[in-house]
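PROTEIN DESIGN WORKSHEET
SECTION A - STRUCTURE
LENGTH: 545
TOKENS:
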């Protein structure tokens, strides 16, 4: 049996199973990384394990990263204890191309793992020391969209942020407050330069990170906790940079089928863990083979040579175009469409959904006919070529165990970017009219239908976690399958559809609010109404690819 913790003792067995192993001095990498860190990463979940850890490993194998990565978690301490420390910060990566021949490798470039929270004083003290070290060049983030949001739909600070503002930098709890507190220590120790790099899936992510961080710092300055010079430090992008990025790699939750496969191949302790906070994680990570990472090349304190690991380094405008292409047109809106419809229609697999002619045509209509006409090519990637890779190849990959339920998580935090940006372009471009949109409004109507918590057969299901789920479900609480009272439905959904915080635009000002109302009412007619509504719109407006 192969023990991941002691992989060096099983090199013949790993070679026989074609498992790639490290070719660097891991002990030196970890020691150097803990003493003089270069790269810290916030968010120890599966995207780090299946992409960032691979990039670091690739660089280390080439002698380009002698320090390793310090990975930290601010939300779920069990991730650190049970997925990292128990396995000596090693990761077994399983890359799953559609061809069926999996690639397995032991990723070993994580130098340390820490629960970065004042409640864990030992780990937090280590992180303070790392931020005070001039060697630190960059901090990356994969914390999802909600990690950056400080206010609720009423434009008031959410509870943890309000408490953190009142308490100041000594005992922060929210990720953004923790980051602000750590940067304050870096400022006090020498105001060293640094790059703060969001790797989360939304447009202009660096700008949002900067806005959120500065908001907290300015509130602390008002309260007298930090000086104006700290605000000046954070505001000077020649010292503290916020590079924009586009990241793309489908990395679903660990799959039970992969767990069983690894166990059958002789790997010990490959069980999947669900933490008390609901994170699904394992000693292994399963991910697709196709991936992209495009980064704005702005690192005031230097950087590893990421291009040696296949990363594109370019200017901000190109990153913005590439990210807009992916997040608003060629991948993420299609993923969310499959997520919402998949939950309503009883699917548990994205790949299985792609075998459904209605759903396959739906995502093609959204991508090719509604998104592509208003997206600008970034130059380094052709949008149509990218889309042609996503729809028939990546989404249809039967080896990727991705579920609509995973993608549906935090939808309220995603719709403004994934659909609102395209709607705004139809409002702004002279020869475009948002009233011509059909399938983007249909998905927004389907999301309202999803929030009712009944599938297309009328059976209850549990919607995926979402910070606005309780609020939105409360607003829709007396709408049930069969509700057809137009005035009553309008009373309930107009405040939602007109909310710019959710959609990025007032959908009534975009002149598609009434259309969405009508679609929603049709989907409420009875059992199978979602499927019938989808088919009717596809028959009337689809099939023109």
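SECTION B - SEQUENCE
RESIDUE ASSIGNMENT:
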């Amino acid at each position: 049996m192969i023990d991941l913790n002691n992989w060096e003792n099983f090199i013949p067995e790993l070679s026989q199973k074609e498992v790639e192993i490290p070719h660097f001095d891991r002990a030196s990498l970890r020691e150097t990384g803990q003493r003089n860190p270069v790269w810290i990463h916030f968010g120890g979940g599966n995207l780090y394990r299946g992409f960032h850890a691979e990039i670091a490993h690739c660089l280390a194998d080439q002698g380009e990263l002698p320090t390793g990565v310090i990975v930290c978690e601010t939300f779920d301490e069990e991730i650190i204890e049970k997925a990292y420390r128990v396995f000596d910060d090693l990761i077994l990566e399983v890359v799953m191309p559609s061809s069926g021949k999996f690639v397995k490798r032991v990723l070993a470039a994580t130098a340390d793992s820490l629960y970065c929270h004042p409640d864990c004083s030992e780990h937090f003290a280590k992180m303070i020391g790392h931020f005070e070290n001039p060697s630190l060049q960059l901090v990356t983030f994969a914390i999802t969209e909600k990690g950056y949001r400080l206010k609720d739909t009423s434009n008031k600070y959410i509870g943890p942020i309000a408490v953190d503002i009142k308490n100041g930098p000594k005992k922060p709890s929210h990720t953004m407050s923790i980051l602000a507190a750590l940067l304050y220590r870096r400022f006090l120790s020498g105001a060293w330069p640094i790059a703060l790099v969001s790797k989360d899936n939304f447009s202009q992510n660096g700008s949002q990170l900067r806005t959120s961080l500065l908001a907290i710092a300015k509130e602390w300055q008002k309260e007298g906790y930090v000086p104006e010079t700290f605000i000046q430090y954070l505001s000077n992008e020649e010292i503290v940079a916020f590079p924009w990025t586009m990241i793309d790699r489908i990395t679903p939750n660990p799959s039970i089928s992969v767990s069983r496969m690894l166990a059958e191949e002789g790997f010990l302790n490959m069980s999947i863990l669900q933490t008390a906070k609901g994170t699904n994680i394992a000693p292994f990570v399963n991910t697709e083979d196709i991936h992209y990472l495009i980064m704005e090349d702005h690192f005031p304190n230097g950087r590893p040579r990421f291009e040696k690991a296949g990363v594109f380094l370019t200017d901000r405008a190109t990153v913005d175009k590439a990210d807009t292409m992916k997040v608003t047109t060629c991948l993420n809106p299609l993923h969310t469409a499959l997520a919402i419809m998949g939950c309503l229609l009883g699917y548990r697999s994205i790949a299985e959904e792609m075998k459904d002619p209605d759903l396959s045509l739906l995502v093609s209509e959204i991508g090719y006919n509604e998104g592509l006409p208003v997206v600008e090519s970034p130059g380094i990637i052709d949008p149509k070529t990218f889309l042609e890779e996503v729809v028939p190849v990546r989404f249809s990959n039967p080896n990727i165990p991705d579920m609509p339920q995973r993608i549906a998580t935090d939808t309220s935090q995603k719709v403004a970017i994934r659909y609102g940006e395209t709607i705004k372009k139809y409002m702004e471009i002279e020869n475009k009219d948002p009233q011509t949109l059909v399938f983007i409004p249909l998905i927004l109507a389907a999301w309202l239908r999803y929030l009712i918590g009944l599938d297309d057969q009328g059976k209850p299901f549990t919607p995926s976690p979402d910070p606005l789920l309780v609020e939105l479900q409360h607003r829709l609480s007396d709408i049930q399958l069969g509700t057809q009272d137009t005035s009553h439905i309008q009373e309930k959904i107009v405040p939602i559809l007109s909310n710019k915080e959710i959609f990025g635009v007032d959908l009534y000002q975009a002149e598609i609010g009434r259309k969405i109302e009508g679609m929603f009412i049709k989907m409420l007619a009875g059992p199978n109404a979602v499927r019938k509504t989808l088919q009717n719109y596809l028959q009337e407006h689809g099939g023109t690819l």
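SECTION C - NOTES
Residues 316-541 form a domain with the N-(1-d-carboxylethyl)-l-norvaline Dehydrogenase; domain 2 fold (CATH 1.10.1040.10).
The longest strand covers residues 110-115.
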